[in-house]
């Protein structure tokens, strides 16, 4: 079983991940509404997935550098 320090770190990571995900979703939603009001072209799902994959690969590289 995990010790208290590991449990606390896992819990804190989960909370920070959930909060950052929710914050990014709200900011993206606002940004998208503003673009629609200005008549800008919407981002399609393929572009969003490609961006997400690119961001994840950068984050993975940063984590490898840290460890």
The shape, in one word, is elongated
Structural class: mainly alpha
Helix content: over 70%
Low-confidence stretches: none
User: Taking Cα atoms only, what radius of gyration do you get, to the nearest Å?
Assistant: 17 Å
Counting H and I runs of at least 4 residues, what is the number of helices? 2
- In what range is the share of β-strand residues? under 5%
Average pLDDT over all residues: 86
Number-wise, the strands total 0
Domain module count: 1
Measured between the Cα atoms of the first and last residue, the distance is 23 Å
Q: Tell me the major beta sheet.
A: none
How are helices and strands ordered from N to C?
HH
Précis, in short:
The chain is mainly alpha-helical.
Description of the molecule:
With 67 residues, this protein is mainly alpha-helical. The chain has one domain. It is built from two helices and no strands. It starts with a helix and ends with a helix. The model has no long low-confidence stretch (mean pLDDT 86).
């Amino acid at each position: 079983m995990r010790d208290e320090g590991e449990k606390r770190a896992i819990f804190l990571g989960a909370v920070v991940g959930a909060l950052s995900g929710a914050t990014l979703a709200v900011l993206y939603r606002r940004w998208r509404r503003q673009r629609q009001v200005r008549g800008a072209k919407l981002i399609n799902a393929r572009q969003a997935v490609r961006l997400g994959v690119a961001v994840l690969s950068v984050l993975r590289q940063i984590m490898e550098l840290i460890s």
